[in-house]
């Protein structure tokens, strides 16, 4: 009996192709939406076929995919999209998709021999309510989410988060602690957004202000998000009491964008998430 071999490949070149796994079923022709938070703990069922393409559309850059099988389908990665197509008329396998923020989305893949058209699966990254800033706005008010989902304005005196507001070590956490401050200074020039992000560390541990951890999303009036290609420079390790600035250039930026920056605290191994909605001023 032939053993299935695991697949793992990277999309650093922008486009990668792989063959994946095997078994049969049918499913309706659909466009469906999933929440990334659900997919990290429970796999979702998706359908593929030999005649039509299945599209997985994420709200972050896809780094790699993996599967336990190697003879069921092909997968192509480009930016935040994964294109799937079956190589066999029946079969089933798994699919793991790793995105740039480190989360892994899990899927069960089933071949639909009765498919009548392409399928599209939207994987959403729900956002925190964000303050709106313009180039002339003061630094944003920082809010920290507690364990019950409500937000509070941190006290001005630097202190460690307490009680239910303290994150589990090693976890990606929405919001910033009181001792980490980020100031965003945007400037629009036509369709080009230049953005300076400055982080100040008033805590006891060093931070990693990684330029590769910055994401910029274009927003429309319906709240839909699309990943924007960016050029980033600066950042680095931030000692207690220090600051670091990351410069971001996003071409083709709409009038409203969302900025997401994940900042790692070294001593606790926590990853804090800064989110801000920026709107072009008139």
UniProtKB/TrEMBL annotation:
<feature type="region of interest" description="Disordered">
    <location>
        <begin position="129"/>
        <end position="172"/>
    </location>
</feature>
<feature type="signal peptide">
    <location>
        <begin position="1"/>
        <end position="21"/>
    </location>
</feature>
<protein>
    <submittedName>
        <fullName>Uncharacterized protein</fullName>
    </submittedName>
</protein>
<keyword id="KW-0732">Signal</keyword>
């Amino acid at each position: 009996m032939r053993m299935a071999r695991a697949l793992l490949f990277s999309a650093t070149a922008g486009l990668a192709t792989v063959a994946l796994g095997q078994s049969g079923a049918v499913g309706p022709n659909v466009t469906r939406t999933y929440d990334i938070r659900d997919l990290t703990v429970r796999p979702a069922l998706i359908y593929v076929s030999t005649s039509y393409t299945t599209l997985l559309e994420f709200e972050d850059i896809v780094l790699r995919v993996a599967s336990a099988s190697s003879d069921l389908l092909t997968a192509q990665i480009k930016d935040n999209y994964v294109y799937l197509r079956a190589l066999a008329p029946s079969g089933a396998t798994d699919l793991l998709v790793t995105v740039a923020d480190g989360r892994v989305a899990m899927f069960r893949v089933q071949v639909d021999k009765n498919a009548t058209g392409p399928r599209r699966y939207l994987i959403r990254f729900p956002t925190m309510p964000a303050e709106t800033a313009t180039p002339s706005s003061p630094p944003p008010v920082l809010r920290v989410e507690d364990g019950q989902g409500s937000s509070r304005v941190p006290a001005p005196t630097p202190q460690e988060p307490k009680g239910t507001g303290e994150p589990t070590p090693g976890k990606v956490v929405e919001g910033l602690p009181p001792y980490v401050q980020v100031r965003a200074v945007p400037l629009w020039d036509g369709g080009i957004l230049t953005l300076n992000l400055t982080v100040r560390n008033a805590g006891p541990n060093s931070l990693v202000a990684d330029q590769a951890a910055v994401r910029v999303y274009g927003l429309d009036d319906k709240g839909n998000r699309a990943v924007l290609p960016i050029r980033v420079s600066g950042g680095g390790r931030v000692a207690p009491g220090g600051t670091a600035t990351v410069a971001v250039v996003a071409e083709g930026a709409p009038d409203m964008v969302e900025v997401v920056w994940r900042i790692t605290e070294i001593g606790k191994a926590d990853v804090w998430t800064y989110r801000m909605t920026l709107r072009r001023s008139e």
